[in-house]
Amino acid sequence: MTDFPAFFEIAPPPPELRLRDDSDDYGWRRYRDSDQDGLSAIQAAKAFPAAVEVDPPEALRAAVFACSGGLDSSRYREATTFRAMPDMGWEEARIALNRLLSPIRYSTRETRQYQTRQYVALAEFVLTATGFTGFVGRRGEHAVKLRDGLGDARDKLRGYLDSTLQTTELQAERLACPITLHGDMHGAPRSVANSIDLAFWAMVPTAADEWVRIIDATPDQTMSALDYLRATLARWDARHPVAADVLNRLTGGDSAPTAAEYAEAIHIADMLVFTNEKLLSLYAGIIYSMPIYRLYPATSEAEAIALWWPWGRPAPLVDGGPPRPPKPGKQTLDPSLITATRPQDVVREVMQKTGINRTTAQRMTATMRTRMRQQRRNEAARLLRLGHSKSEVARKVGLSASRISAMFKGEEFPAKRLRAAVG
After folding, report:
1. Helices 259-289 and 301-308 sit at what angle, rounded to 10 degrees?
2. What's the Cα-to-Cα distance from 332 to each of 28, 328, 335, 354, 364, rounded to whole Å?
3. What are the domain boundaries of the chain?
4. Contact between 250 and 257 (Cβ < 8 Å)
5. Which residues neighbour 337 within 8 Å (Cβ) at sequence distance 6 or greater?
6. What CA–CA distances, in Å, run from 179 to 66, 135, 230, 303?
7. How many CB atoms lie within 10 A of CB 31?
8. Gap between the terminal Cα atoms of the chain
9. What residues pair up with 66 in beta bridges, in sequence order?
10. Residue of 88, 90, 156 whose CA lies nearest to 122
């Protein structure tokens, strides 16, 4: 980079050039810029549209409006004459109205925020001047033409609000479809590829002041963005009747809205369009990121994102991880694991310690249990030959007396008194 002398200073560009900068406060363009290859301004925006502050009618009548220039001009220079409505002549009122209409009539590629400010500025004059008869001078041709001009301007205000609300209705129809039906995959390959790219790079909010690019979002951030945008949309959709009421009152009559009410209605419509567009971008980003979701539409959003979301975390291995060591063809059992002393307790202990099912445990311990039963029988026979009673033997070997009797049925053993005599 070239080093300039200390006295050399580069002046910033004039604001009228409206150059794009690197700040986060993007001006968002119209809803669909057909000749724009990159992200739309709404997709790139990292701030919700701001409301325009408007004074009440009493304050607006005392405010000054620019009224210099010609009646039929399409472009005006910087104003040199400013007057409040009570000090303004009828012709000057027509000039003031034409100056406010000029940027609306002849601007084609201005940002949406800029257009909203222009329409609100027009509403400040039109909705305040409608019905106002305190202009200076005699009424004449200028008074009639001013009345007609105010009516036409009011139609423009109504058309701008009406088109915005119609856009919200079209967006609401698209949002009513499940996520698995979003993402256009039937266009030309280049168009589909561009749509996928734009969806991945769109910015979405996860909280009031936290924004994330879809391709950088974690699964938790994606769910947070869904919840936050839906909550924001529900909050502003509840105020939709307010904007619809202002639209109906703009048709004429004595119940015309004030400029402040019009600014509020425009802000509601702008917030709905902005939030809808962000949510549609997120829906498209989700289905483009997880095309497998289309095959399992019954899966909940939270479960699908937890399973298949590919961004914001280490990528899973394609083959599912390293292979597990091969299992032996035949299961083996370590005899040292068994501490039971009774054959009937062996199977239960093996099942608890190894997780082997009952059938397998019985098969693997069959020989051991047979040997334990034989040892128990030998021990019982030895004790009986020593003259112990069957009940004593039963307690020592862990069986019942009836079981001992059945086991040695028909066999005779020395009596207890014989054992005492021998002793």
Report:
1. 50
2. 70, 9, 10, 11, 8
3. 40-308, 335-422
4. yes
5. 349, 350, 353, 354
6. 51, 57, 13, 13
7. 18
8. 116
9. 82
10. 156
SS3 393: helix
Helix (H) or strand (E) holding 345, with range, is helix 343-354
Residue 92 near residue 66, CB atoms below 8 Å: no
CA atoms of 369 and 375, how far apart (whole Å): 10
Q: What is the pLDDT along the chain (423 residues), one digit of tens a residue?
A: 445 555 555 566 555 444 444 443 333 433 333 334 466 777 778 888 889 999 998 999 889 999 988 888 878 888 888 999 999 999 999 999 999 988 888 766 567 788 889 999 999 999 998 888 888 888 888 888 988 999 999 999 999 999 999 999 999 999 999 999 988 766 666 777 888 888 898 899 999 889 999 999 999 999 999 999 999 999 999 999 999 999 999 987 678 899 999 999 999 999 999 999 999 999 999 999 999 999 999 999 999 999 999 998 776 555 555 566 666 556 677 777 888 888 888 888 888 888 888 888 888 888 888 988 888 888 888 888 888 888 888 888 888 888 888 888 888 777 665 455 444
Check: CB of residue 279 under 8 Å from CB of residue 186: no
Number of Cβ within a 10 Å radius of residue 206: 20
| Closest among 399, 332, 398, 342 to 369, alpha carbons compared | 342
Cα gap 208→310, rounded to integer Å: 25
For 359, the token pair is 């059938």
165-204 burial, b at 16+ Cβ within 10 Å, e below that, comes to bebbeebeeebeeebbebbeeeeeeeeeeebbebbbbbbb
For residue 71, report the phi and psi dihedrals to the nearest 5 degrees.
-70, -30
Measured distance CA(198)–CA(365) in Å, rounded: 65
Token representation of residue 99: 């100056």
Q: Are 67 and 95 contacting, i.e. CB atoms less than 8 angstroms apart?
A: yes
Which class for 3: exposed (0-12), middle (13-18), buried (19 or more C-beta within 10 A)? exposed
